[in-house]
Amino acid sequence: MIMAYDQQNFMRTDCPLDKDLLGYQTWGLLHTMAAYYPDHPTPHQQRDMYNFFMLLAQFYPCATCARDFANLLRVRPPVTSSRRELGQWLCWIHNTVNRKLGKPIFDCALIDERWKDGWEDGSCDI
Ligand SMILES: Cc1cc2nc3c(=O)[nH]c(=O)nc-3n(C[C@H](O)[C@H](O)[C@H](O)COP(=O)(O)OP(=O)(O)OC[C@H]3O[C@@H](n4cnc5c(N)ncnc54)[C@H](O)[C@@H]3O)c2cc1C
Q: Does ligand 1 come within 6 angstroms of the Cβ of 31?
């Protein structure tokens, strides 16, 4: 049998995802999607993005995460009117999950540096 490893962390890369890795990778996709969402989305795009998050909360493959996420969306539904609004909304959602799990709160002013442009000091460009 051939086993695949992450060369830097010596972690297996060919096993089913656990809750944390699934979460980490999902946040990566969601924040990157928000970072590249149009500044001026059409009504159709706004509706599709809204539905995307509602469906994600229905099918997210971690039962307790999905239940709490769906409750959160009921309190604060997706804001899909622009790239900026979506990014800030998602940052707030992620911070709410962070708070629940006792993780650090992320500064939402840095959302583009983290997920689109790279840090201002150029450390992502090396
Ligand atoms: C919708 C959803 C619900 C979840 N619910 C649960 C749950 O109920 N219970 C549970 O145990 N786990 C849950 N998770 C997983 C959990 O949120 C983490 O992904 C997991 O614990 C791994 O955490 P991490 O420390 O690697 O960083 P993550 O929280 O995965 O964050 C990844 C990276 O995102 C950046 N980041 C952090 N906060 C923000 C923010 N507010 N805005 C923008 N970028 C940010 C940071 O650079 C961080 O390194 C959920 C994940 C998702 C996607």
A: yes
